[in-house]
Structures are given as structure tokens and as C-alpha cells.
């Protein structure tokens, strides 16, 4: 009886990709495998046909020979193969071979793992953040034990291969037609047994130490910025690479300035007399004092912008500004004479109040209209 075309067996086109071949085979293997269809001769034959077709078409050289010469180009008997393919192997073998890329077969206990990343919270003054600084940080971290060189075994001894899992770190359990892998209960997935643990690290292969690092903080950093120090995290397992250290920046509150992006803000209290008559004030900046001229009749809330007196952008996009908000300060703890002088001054203002306090009169007119509208 003539053999069925391999492409028809798998139900794919002749130009099917490798992924399409594997997908078709997965479907047929799950459907017809003898472990799922015990005693069903037809299902077993279908499984053998699918397995044979996949073994030929998944091999680029065999597929090319089959495409050119048909079954004659890949007939095992022509090479003394004894005729035909065997369905040998349990369903777990098929599961590992075809489905392993989905569920991820692990290589065993000797697999190297990257170390964990660490985080360090660093508080900086506004001045240090603006100017940049090199800071020392002391961090606790796990490092490879120098006594046992990370093996976990006592000096002069070596770990032995776990006899339960054969050094794989995992054991396989059969549940119906599924094969389940889990960590070896004896070696806990390590693949090796330490009979004489290292006294320095107690068999862990790592010890905790504190190390001091120099961290260069670039000028212009702000709260929330992170600085990455590659390879300064936890040591890796089984020779794996170390993790990284991330320095998280937090800026301390400043008694004068408040930062918003690359600008600095501050409130500038001035006396009633200076606000009315004008004058000059010394304004603090992160670079030193600046003389600011206050014009006469300056009102509370007025903002003076000092260009270039803010923060240099960490992306080198220029320097921000310093924004000084005027707050006219009401005098307190007045003497009797001062109170009398202010009352006399207030009396003189009442003579031409519309001229001296236009905003107050405008506000009072608005209040008056508001109440009139309520009554109507």
C-alpha cells in the first residue's frame, strides 16, 4: 500500500514553515499518542505516521530529499535501516521534544543565575543636587564566599552529585499522559549535595558583607532620578553574573528654595515701606547674592524672574530661572507711637482713597453689586 504524502499527514502546505510543522505535529501528537488511546490500533498508526512525517520534514536535508524524490529519497530501508520508524519513547519524551519550548525545560541545578538588583535611597541637599557631587555609600550585599569560592563545601572537599536526580536538580513525575517536572526534594534543586558545609558561609556559597562605593552624582539630578551601578548588586548563583545597584535620589526640603523642574521658587518678604516707595534688596541664589531693584508700588504676589539663576538641566538643555514672589509683610508688635503714625497716615489716604487703593475700591464695588443681585 502506498504511503500517504507527509504534508497531507500533517495537514500542512508544501511550503509550510518550521513553526507550522511543529504546530501541526503538536496537535496530532496530543490527539493520537498511544498513552492517551490505549488499545486503539488506528490511533497508534496515525501517531506513527505523524511522527514519521515530522521527523522527515523537520530535518532540512531530509525534507529537501523528500521534496525531490518523494518517499524513495528518505526510505530508511535504502540505508539498511530495517524498514520503518518505531513509536518508541513515552509521551513524556514527545512532551519534552515538541512542547518544551512552551513550558521551558530547565537545565538542572548547575544552571547559573544572575544576582538580584539592589536599591539604595540617597538623600541629597539641593545644593549638592544642583552642583553635582561624588558621594560615598555603604551597602550590605551578598558576595561569593572567599573560603569555599562559592561552592558551599568545606575547604578541601567538593559537593557530590545528587543520586536522586542525577545532578539535574529536578525529578519527573508521571500523571496520566503528562510528565511533570519539579525540584528534587533531596537537593532542593541544586543538583548537588554538600556533606561538609563551609564553616564561613554555612553551605550557602555566599556571605554578607558591607562595601563602600563612590557614586558620582551628576549636576541637575532631581527627586526620583535613578543612577545605575552595573555589577554592584547581589552576587550571582553558580557562577552567574552579579546584579546591579540602583541609587534612588531624594532631595531634602530646602529652607528657602522650592524646585519645580529646572526653576527655583522662593518667597521674598518685603516691608510695607519698601513695597510702597521701592528700594533694593539682597536676594539669595545658589551662586551667591544678587541685588534686586524693587519698583515703587509693588504689590503682594508680584514675581521677579532672575534668568539663569535656577538649575542646570541634566540633559544639558540650558539653565532654569529663579522666581521670587513678593510677600508684603504686615508690621507686628507696634508701639503706641507707631500705631498713631499709621492711623494718621490712613486718615490722609481716605481723602483720595480711589487714587491710593484702586484694587480695594474695585473689590468693594464688586461685593456691593453681589449683594444687590442677591436681593433682586
Tags for this model:
four-stranded mixed sheet, alpha+beta, three-stranded mixed sheet, 29% helix, HSP40/DNAj peptide-binding domain, 10 helices, Helix Hairpins, 376 residues
Structure description:
By secondary structure, this protein is α+β, with helices and mostly antiparallel strands. It contains 10 helices and 15 strands. α2 runs antiparallel to α3 (41-57). The chain is elongated and about 120 Å long. Residues 78-95 and 100-109 have low confidence and may be disordered.
Offer a quick outline of the entry.
This protein is α+β, with helices and mostly antiparallel strands and 376 residues long. Helices cover 29% and strands 26% of the residues. The termini are far apart.
**Quaternary state of the chains:** single chain
Mean pLDDT: 81
Q: Kindly report how far apart the N and C termini lie.
A: 106 Å
Strand order of the largest sheet: 10-11-15-14
Layout of SSEs?
Blueprint: H1 6-10, H2 18-32, H3 41-57, H4 60-69, H5 91-103, E1 118-124, H6 126-131, E2 133-144, E3 160-161, E4 170-175, E5 178-183, E6 192-193, E7 206-217, E8 226-229, E9 245-251, E10 258-260, E11 263-271, H7 272-277, E12 279-285, E13 288-294, E14 303-306, E15 322-329, H8 336-351, H9 353-356, H10 358-375
Amino acid at each position: 500500500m502506498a504511503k500517504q504524502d507527509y504534508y497531507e499527514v500533517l495537514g500542512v502546505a508544501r511550503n509550510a514553515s518550521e513553526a507550522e510543522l511543529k504546530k501541526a505535529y503538536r496537535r496530532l501528537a496530543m490527539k493520537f499518542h498511544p498513552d492517551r488511546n490505549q488499545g486503539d490500533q488506528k490511533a497508534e498508526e496515525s501517531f506513527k505516521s505523524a511522527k514519521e512525517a515530522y521527523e522527515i520534514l523537520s530535518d532540512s536535508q531530509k525534507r529537501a530529499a523528500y521534496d525531490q524524490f518523494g518517499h524513495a529519497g528518505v526510505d530508511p530501508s535504502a540505508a539498511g535501516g530495517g524498514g520503518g520508524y518505531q513509536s518508541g519513547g513515552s509521551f513524556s519524551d514527545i512532551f519534552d521534544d515538541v512542547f518544551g519550548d512552551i513550558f521551558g525545560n530547565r537545565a538542572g541545578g548547575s544552571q547559573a543565575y544572575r544576582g538580584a538588583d539592589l536599591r539604595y535611597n540617597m538623600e541629597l541637599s539641593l545644593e549638592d543636587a544642583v552642583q553635582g557631587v561624588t558621594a560615598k555609600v555603604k551597602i550590605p550585599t551578598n558576595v561569593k564566599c572567599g573560603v569555599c569560592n562559592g561552592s558551599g563545601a568545606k575547604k578541601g572537599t567538593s559537593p557530590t552529585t545528587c543520586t536522586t536526580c542525577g545532578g539535574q536538580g529536578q525529578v519527573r513525575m508521571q500523571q496520566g499522559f503528562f510528565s511533570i517536572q519539579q525540584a528534587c526534594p533531596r537537593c532542593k534543586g541544586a543538583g548537588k549535595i554538600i556533606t561538609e558545609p563551609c564553616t564561613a558561609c554555612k553551605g550557602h556559597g555566599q556571605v554578607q558583607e558591607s562595601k563602600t562605593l563612590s557614586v558620582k552624582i551628576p549636576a541637575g539630578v532631581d527627586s526620583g532620578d535613578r543612577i545605575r551601578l552595573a555589577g554592584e548588586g547581589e552576587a550571582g548563583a553558580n557562577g552567574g553574573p552579579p546584579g546591579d545597584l540602583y541609587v534612588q535620589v531624594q532631595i531634602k526640603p530646602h529652607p528657602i528654595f522650592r524646585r519645580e523642574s529646572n526653576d527655583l521658587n522662593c518667597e521674598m518678604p518685603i516691608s510695607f515701606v519698601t513695597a510702597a516707595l521701592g528700594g533694593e534688596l539682597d536676594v539669595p541664589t545658589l551662586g551667591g547674592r544678587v541685588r534686586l531693584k524693587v519698583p515703587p508700588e509693588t504689590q503682594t504676589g508680584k514675581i521677579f524672574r532672575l534668568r539663569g539663576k535656577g538649575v542646570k538641566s541634566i540633559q544639558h538643555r540650558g539653565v532654569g530661572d529663579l522666581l521670587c514672589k513678593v510677600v508684603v509683610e504686615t508690621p507686628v508688635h507696634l508701639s503706641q507711637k507707631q500705631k498713631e503714625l499709621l492711623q494718621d497716615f490712613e486718615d490722609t489716604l481716605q481723602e483720595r482713597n480711589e487714587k491710593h487703593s484702586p484694587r480695594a475700591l474695585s473689590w468693594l464695588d464688586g461685593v456691593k453689586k453681589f449683594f444687590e443681585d442677591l436681593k433682586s
